[in-house]
């Protein structure tokens, strides 16, 4: 077991093995809380193993080698599982496309056969009508006299022919899926080089801040790891790196309230007050139900939101937020109290300025005479 908080390092070899998957370490207000689960149900004589320095050094090397070997095995297993999943996904996609193609082909053949059948029926009926007209004409030529010929028009005959036309084809819906882009504007060949350059600069800026998603190892794509990394950046006053770490953790686990809470604190330090209010609000929405276990986090969220509202010149809206924070965590009165007093002092000024900005200025309005 080892923890580092520069310039201090704490290290201890435990008396017996623990279950790493169910054990965790939590940082809170300059203190570290370990929650360890025993691997074997035996009584420990003490927390740390008491042996000579050489024996502890040798045992430490063996433990590190075992840990490295286990992680390598896990990485290999993950790679094998990922390859198998990709292979199955490709196979399922091919099967799905084949079935869809067969369905489309069957629908096309059915429609084609239906149209050909209707066309053949219509053609047959048309030929019969034409033959009947030809026979009637020949009979008139054979039995003709000098009497005038009377011609009668059949009104229903064209209607019958029109009714034999094939019915229109059925329509189908085509779904169109667009390729995802980092930009809201359409893709253009003339701006492709500028967009790629902008993306490279953004990646370089994140890498300079100490955190970039593309550089993470597979085992580091974990929201808990991102939370600890962001907390480390906060202690080092690297707020840009902290925001990047918390944001990546939110992508991995969007329901983890503490990531939004800590990111709101970093946003306040960076003077992104609107984003700080949004993150604190999201954290409060996720911290439900309101129980004793999350009272400290809820107090911190109200405090971050109240502090951001003060900086946005709306101190009259921040008073209730800071009072709630002080009510939930009275032991932090030394931190929340001065900010509450500052909000109460600035509230009349901010409220008066807001009301004045809402008033309609008619000093330079033109005079209108009505007759």
UniProtKB/TrEMBL annotation:
UniProt protein name: Dynein assembly factor 4, axonemal
Listed PANTHER family: DYNEIN ASSEMBLY FACTOR 4, AXONEMAL, DYNEIN AXONEMAL ASSEMBLY FACTOR 4
Gene3D superfamilies: 2.60.40.790, Tetratricopeptide repeat domain
TPR repeats mapped onto the chain: 299-332
Keyword line: TPR repeat
Keyword Membrane: no
GO biological process: cilium movement; inner dynein arm assembly; outer dynein arm assembly
Xref: SMART domains: TPR
